[in-house]
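Figure 6 in text form: structure in, sequence out.
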């Protein structure tokens, strides 16, 4: 993947049992917090935390036991959940990652927290959970 800048680091997703308390913690650490988004596809409450010149931190709290984040929360309790990269061509990026043995876990879906831009989640035994968001 060194022949082109396919991926641009966008954010790290942090799973949390309490999005309000985690938001307060990140604000105390100097971040600015977005509104709370309720994402029906992820069945989660999401807050984006930002600081100038740095990648986002996406706080994710399951809103339902069937949320994909709920299983991670059971294993991690809280912490890094996924890394996200921004891509110009979502289908091409998925194809390139599949060639590197990533498995697509979801179909491209509009993301409420990212103004309807499509996202897809992939898994690699070597890299863990990866999210792609189209530019």
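Output sequence:
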């Amino acid at each position: 993947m060194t022949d082109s800048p396919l991926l641009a680091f966008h954010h790290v997703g942090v799973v949390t049992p309490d999005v309000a308390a985690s938001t307060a913690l990140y604000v105390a650490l100097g971040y600015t917090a977005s509104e709370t988004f309720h994402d029906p596809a992820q069945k989660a409450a999401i807050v984006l935390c930002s600081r100038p010149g740095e990648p986002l931190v996406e706080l994710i709290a399951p809103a339902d036991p069937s949320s994909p984040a709920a299983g991670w929360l059971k294993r991690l309790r809280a912490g890094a959940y996924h890394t996200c990269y921004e891509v110009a061509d979502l289908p091409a990026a998925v194809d390139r990652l599949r060639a590197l043995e990533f498995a697509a876990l979801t179909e491209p879906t509009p993301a409420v927290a990212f103004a309807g831009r499509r996202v897809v989640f992939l898994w690699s035994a070597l890299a863990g959970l990866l999210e792609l968001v189209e530019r």
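Caption detail: The chain has one domain: 8-134.
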